[in-house]
Amino acid sequence: MNMKSKNNKRCFVLPIAVIFLATMAFAGPAQTQDERDKGATQAAMTWFNSLMGGEAAVTTALCAVPFSFDGKKEIMTLPELEVLYEQIIKEKGKRDLKPVFVKIESSSPEKVVVILTIEGDDQKIAVSVKPAEVFRIIGFRD
After folding, report:
1. How many independent structural domains does the chain possess?
2. Is 91 part of any domain?
3. Max CA separation in the chain (angstroms)
4. Which of 2, 19, 51, 119 is the most exposed place for a label (fewest CB within 10 A)?
5. Residue 61: which domain range?
6. Are 138 and 68 in contact (CB under 8 A)?
C-alpha cells in the first residue's frame, strides 16, 4: 500500500470516528416515560422494603438530599436522614408490610411520585423519586 492510499483511508476514517465519539459524549440515553416510571417504581419498592426490614443504612443509601419528610420537613444531609430512619425503625420496629397496589401519581423528567397502597389497611404512601442513571428517593408522605 502506498503512502497516498494510507492518507486517503485516514481522511475517511477520522471524521467517522469523531462523529461517533461526539455522539457518545453528548447523546446520553434518553429515558422514555415508561422506562422512567418502571425505574421509579422499582426504586420506591426497594426503599419501602428496606425501611420495613429495619435497614436504616440501606434505606438512606437509596436516597438523595434535600429530602422531603412527610411534606413538612426538609432534611439536608444523609447522616441526618439516617438518624430519622433509625428513629422510625426504633418506634415501629421491623414490619412485614407489603405494597399490594402501585400507581404513578405524576411523572416528569425531574420527579416521579409513586403511590404505594399497603396490604391490610388501605394506607397509602407517596414516594418521590428523582430519575437518573441511578434512581434516588427524595421524599415521602403518608
Report:
1. 1
2. yes
3. 80
4. 2
5. 33-141
6. yes
